[in-house]
Amino acid sequence: MSGSGSKSRTSNEVDAWLATGHRPFVVVISGPSGVGKSSFVKQLLAAGLNLEYSVSATTRARRPHETEGRDEFRRRIDAGEFVEWAEVHGEHYGTLRSEIERRLGAGKNVLLDIDVQGGRAVRRVYKDGVFIFVLPPSLADLEERLRGRATDSDDTIRLRLDNALREIKLVSEYDYAVVNDELRSALDRVASIIVAETCSTSRRPPLVST
Fold this sequence. Notes:
Oligomer: single chain
Radius of gyration: 21 Å
Number of strands: 8
Structural class: alpha/beta
CATH topology of the domain at 23-54 and 107-200: Rossmann fold
Distance between the termini: 17 Å
Largest sheet: 5 strands, parallel
Helix content: 40-55%
Mean pLDDT: 86
Low-confidence stretches: none
């Protein structure tokens, strides 16, 4: 009788373990300006990968000489509420830890589209995250894409290319590098990475046999 009870208990434990599924995780997409990250984000969210996008918090629009938005943002920085943040053209942007945790707590994988500096900050907090760097086929191809947008001056394009070169040199800080030579196939590779990570045994709780 004791043996039968032990088998039943073990069977129940295994069934409970099988029902838990994987532990949700953070996915970081980085890459130089013009490489196509926006298209990646949009289509990944529609690909049925259990992903939710974490929108950046930002300082609100202010009237002249008004500082409340910036002061509030600084207060939240000092309180450690942001996983990562940056100042761009005088405005502050950041990813709230509470928003990531809320989505993870709901069983969703969280997608972030951030630069290398932000990726480093996220890695310090979410060490088990999945970090993917999107690369252009070549710098010449990247320059062609930037010029094809017809939104930047020559000086801005040169600055973006210089920044791209610096960022690409840091690709070894990421878990995966995917070349965006053709959007559909590159998206398939990124989706395959996320699916494989979902199946990783490291993302399941340990199964303790007794």
